[in-house]
UniProtKB/TrEMBL annotation:
It comes from Arthrobacter ginkgonis. Residues 68-204 form the tRNA/rRNA methyltransferase SpoU type domain. One of its GO terms (biological process) is methylation. InterPro entries: Alpha/beta_knot_MTases (IPR029028), rRNA_Methyltransferase (IPR051259), SpoU_MeTrfase (IPR001537), tRNA_m1G_MTases_N (IPR029026). This is RNA methyltransferase.
């Protein structure tokens, strides 16, 4: 009994996520979700989207998505993919592309894949053909002998940033197809950083360049 009481007290002490039922007269507009207005909105969404229909949120995001895409090679069901998708949603990437296996672990995405367009390419060849048809520069993020520092590279506005598996990194096929391959400068003892962390840094570099107008160091 004491354990039950302790558990209830702990649950009551946890901060409540989201908002409860709408108070007062309901707002007018086709973007509101009647069920959420009635029951409350406990989703992990920005405050401006509280009580909105899922479809309405996606439609609004589509009006202001950025011009960069994200691609991830998925040959071994990389657990980092979910985290990369979540970050792509945070920085409002145009689309996320999965190269290789269609299935991927969505746990790390924290449901953000519902708001992010995800496209599958069975092969690198298929992905490269798509990127060329869209006029997008393929930019690999990995450590190769010919890699250029991300910190000094002027990222193009219309591009697709490509990330490889944790460990093996990008395949030689992507390396050969890339307009440039960029590395992230590191100062510690390890050779590389987590793939999801690298993706976050690269996406933010694009945001700094094309949203805030901050040019890279010469």
């Amino acid at each position: 009994m004491q354990e039950d009481a302790d558990g209830a007290a702990e649950a009551a002490a946890r901060p409540e996520v989201g908002v409860g039922p709408w108070e007062g007269e309901w707002p007018e507009g086709s973007h509101w979700d009647p069920e959420l207005l009635r029951e409350g909105d406990r989703r992990n969404v920005a405050d401006k989207y509280r009580y909105w229909l899922h479809e309405a949120i996606v439609a609004d995001l589509d009006t202001r998505r950025h011009d960069f895409h994200i691609a991830i090679e998925n040959w071994q069901h990389d657990l980092n993919i979910g985290t990369v998708v979540r970050t792509a949603n945070a920085f409002l990437a145009k689309e996320v592309h999965i190269i290789g296996r269609r299935r991927w672990n969505r746990r790390g995405a924290m449901v953000t894949d519902r708001y992010q367009h995800v496209r599958h390419h069975p092969t690198v060849e298929d992905f490269v053909a798509w990127a060329e048809a869209e006029g997008l520069a393929i930019i690999g993020i990995d450590i190769f002998p010919d890699s250029v520092q991300l910190e000094t590279y002027d990222l193009p506005r219309n591009c697709v940033l490509v990330f490889g598996q944790e460990g093996p990194g990008l395949t030689e096929e992507v390396h050969a197809a890339a307009e440039a391959t960029l590395s992230i400068e590191q100062f510690g003892s390890t050779r590389s950083i987590n793939a999801a962390s690298a993706a976050s840094i690269a996406m933010h570099a694009w945001i700094r360049r094309h949203v805030f107008g901050q040019r890279p160091l010469p």
